[in-house]
Design a protein that fits this description.
The protein is of the alpha+beta class and 269 residues long. It has one domain: Immunoglobulin-like (Sandwich). The protein has five helices and 14 strands. The strands form three sheets. Strands 2, 3, 4, 6, 7, 8, 10 and 11 form an eight-stranded antiparallel beta sheet that branches. Strands 5-1-14-9 form a four-stranded antiparallel beta sheet. About 10% of the residues have low confidence.
Length: 269
């Protein structure tokens, strides 16, 4: 005959196993590795920490031919992602991916890379945007005006992908004159001139070539032509621990049932 304590113990263990299975089955999140690489030549362009935005589709990073938002202006002129973080908040969430070069030790030098591991779910991460400022520049940046869909309508991950960014993909925020004056991370100095233009494809940064960069960053001798590779954004799914938990939970349920039936058979005998 079963004792009350053993019955409660088996019930508790079964409950834990079933809960683990249900949690794993209902979890729509996927674990993704998001990697950013600076593909510029050794004496080429740097870029600032990268804004990574995840949202339900209500957030719009920018539209070609339209004015930049205040958040995009702050990023394109000074590398500050804080404004974009506020703009995306009602529609999702964001991360900032820091490089390891500098000073201040958060920039992406030519040839460098960094990555982050994130657990993302369809509800809050259906779409993906990214953006970063090229330095030195007045307001040159890279980013995707059309958000990438990470999950389909059924909540399924749409698959790994990689985006190469070339010179023809550099954007001009239209918020400062491209005269080199007042550009961050440049020793040219001067005061920048505000403008009220639209976001357009950038015409080039050759006027910065030959300029010295501060704090031992070197001399900028190479910017970009139309086909110059500058950056790469890669998104790759990585193994998810919840799958292992669900599998072990399923084995536990099977094991409990087997042991219960076996014990019941012995006690009847």
């Amino acid at each position: 005959m079963y004792s009350q304590s053993s019955t409660l113990t088996r019930a508790a263990l079964r409950g834990i196993a079933v809960a683990a299975c249900l949690a794993a089955a209902s979890a729509h999140a996927v674990s993704l590795k998001i990697k950013v690489e600076n593909l510029s030549e050794a004496d080429g362009l740097w870029f600032t920490p990268v804004f990574l935005g995840f949202h339900d589709g209500g957030f719009d990073l920018f539209d070609e031919g339209s004015p930049a938002s205040p958040g995009l202006e702050a990023l394109a002129e000074g590398g500050d992602p804080g404004g974009l973080a506020s703009e995306i908040a009602p529609y999702g969430h964001h991360e900032v991916l820091f490089g390891s070069d500098g000073p201040p030790g958060v920039l992406f030098a030519p040839g460098s890379m960094a990555y982050t591991l994130l657990d993302l779910a369809p509800g809050s991460s259906l779409y993906f945007n990214y953006a970063s400022m090229f330095i030195p520049s007045n307001d040159a940046f890279f980013g995707n005006d059309i958000a990438h869909m990470l999950f389909d309508a059924a909540g399924n991950y749409t698959g790994d992908f990689s985006v190469d960014i070339y010179g023809r993909d550099v954007w001009d925020a239209g918020t400062e004159a491209n005269d080199t004056f007042g550009a961050p991370f440049s020793l040219i100095g001067g005061t920048s001139t505000d403008t009220s233009l639209n976001v357009e494809t950038h015409g080039g940064l050759v006027n910065f070539e030959g300029s010295e960069l501060p704090a031992g960053l070197g001399t900028l001798n190479s910017t970009f032509g139309s086909a110059t590779p500058l950056a790469r954004i890669s998104v790759q799914q990585v193994p998810d621990s919840t799958q292992y938990i669900g599998f072990m939970g399923a084995l536990a349920v099977i094991g409990f049932r087997y042991m219960s039936k076996k014990r019941m058979g012995k006690e009847k005998a």
